[in-house]
Every structure is written in C-alpha cells, then in structure tokens.
Amino acid sequence: GTGRLLREEFLQLATIVEQEYELSDPRHNCHSDTIGPYRLTRTLGKGAEGVVKLGINRETGAKKAVKIVQKGNIASMARVDREVEAMVMLNHPAVVSCDEVLESERHMYLVMEYCAGGHLEDYISPTRPMSEAAARFYFSQLVDGLVYCHDKGVCHRDLRVENIMLDNRGNLKITDFGHAGIFQQGWDVFQTMLVGSVSHIAPEQITGTVYSGEKMDVWSAGIILYIMLEGAAPFQAATAEDLLDNIKHGRFERPHRMTHAAAAA
C-alpha cells in the first residue's frame, strides 16, 4: 500500500525472478561452453569489457558469475588487471569475491561470487523507491564495505547503483572494481578526469583538479542513498553539459518523497 519495496518483499521477489528466469531461458539447457571446471550457461550481464555468464561447477554444482574478457584490447585488459589486483586485496561480506582467474588462448575469465538477487537498481524506480528501513539496512552495509576497502588502500571510483548487487539472502555486494584506485595510506590522490558514471561523479573531477578517491566514494555513496529514497538521481538535466554544470555548482532536485527526518540528514 505504501508503494515502497520492503526487504521481505525483495527476498520473495528475487526467488521468483531467478526461478522464472531459469525456466524461461531457452539457452539454459542448450549446448554451452566450458572453462576449467565450469559450464558457462546464460548471460547475466554485458559491459564495455565483455560479458558475464553464469558458470556452474560440473563437479559440485556451485554457481559462479564468470566475466569473460577478450584478449587484445589494451584498455579492457588494463581494467581487468586493476580489478583483479583490487579484489585479491579484499575479503568482506559487502564486497563480491573473486575466486580465481582462468584463461584460454583468446579470453580471460574472472570467476566471481554469484549474486542471485541481481542489481540494486532493479528494485528502485521513481514510482517505487525503497522504504527508509530498507535503505538504512543497505546503506549501512554499503558504508561498512567502503570503510573496509579504504582501510585496505582501495577506492572504488565507480560506485553507482548499477555496480551494487544483492545476493540470494538480500545482502548488498559492491562489484566492478575496474576503475579502482590503489593507494598508500596518506597518499589518496588521483587526477584522472571523469572516471565512472556521470550522474554519480564528484564536483572535483569535473574541474580536473586532484581529488581523493575515498572522498569520491563517499560522494557516490550519498548519491546512491538519495536514489534509494527518491527513486531517481539528485542531479538532473537535459544535456550532459548542463548535468555537469549542475553537479559542479550543487544544483540538485530537492527531495519530495522522503520524510523530513531523512531529507534533513
């Protein structure tokens, strides 16, 4: 009746969605490729670097998310190297784990934890934002994961709702460390311009000045919290140029869905 997705509702929905997807996917029982002990079945997602497929261990039946990256693309391979370097440093419940890296003559395969709950963004819309209780639950997990990453000397630098997933118990997982920055404590300084999603980008990136990767992650986490509660990003514009200008000068949509207490926070 509230138009907001409760965590209990999510758990029920996620189970139904996964079961229906498995049954309806015509490729599920078709011939599939293999790498190492894994049979690669349906596609979980696609990105700039390659495709992510569901990998099923032929001996144990364990499910993994397998990112497949074609060799030869220097930019893609650099991101894979950076992602692996960052992920092997991390071991936290709110960070997706990378179990192993396999390769063939033409491809690299990142074998990662499978998040059956899908992307966080799938459960948020302008007409159905999260309840404040659910947002508080997930934001607490996000902050715990970020603090851990920063303590280990890793800043994400591409934190957005598309890179937040949920496991089959409804717990949050930070994914996609392809833009991660690795730093020594006290030397968290970067100058790469416009890394990550434009809607989540921090003002200092737009100006081209040096910035703190940790502070950039904190900014992006705030954007994610706003999206959880409002169902849409705080900075809006008709063009990319106007959007960057709005971010640079702090012109954002005043919240109208969340309670006064949440908006004041």
From TrEMBL:
Is this entry keyworded Nucleotide-binding?
yes
Entry's Gene Ontology BP terms = intracellular signal transduction
SMART domains referenced in this protein's UniProt entry, alphabetically: TyrKc (SM00219)
List GO terms (cellular component aspect). cytoplasm
Q: Which domain of life is it from?
A: Eukaryota
Keyword Membrane part of the UniProt annotation: no
* Residue ranges annotated for the Protein kinase domain, each copy included: 38-265
Q: What would you give as a GO molecular function for this chain, any one?
A: ATP binding
Recorded hits in Pfam families, A to Z, give:
Pkinase
Q: Which SUPFAM superfamilies did the record assign? A: Protein kinase-like (PK-like)
Q: What keywords does the record list, in alphabetical order?
A: ATP-binding, Kinase, Nucleotide-binding, Serine/threonine-protein kinase, Transferase
User: What is the name attached to this protein's record?
Assistant: Protein kinase domain-containing protein
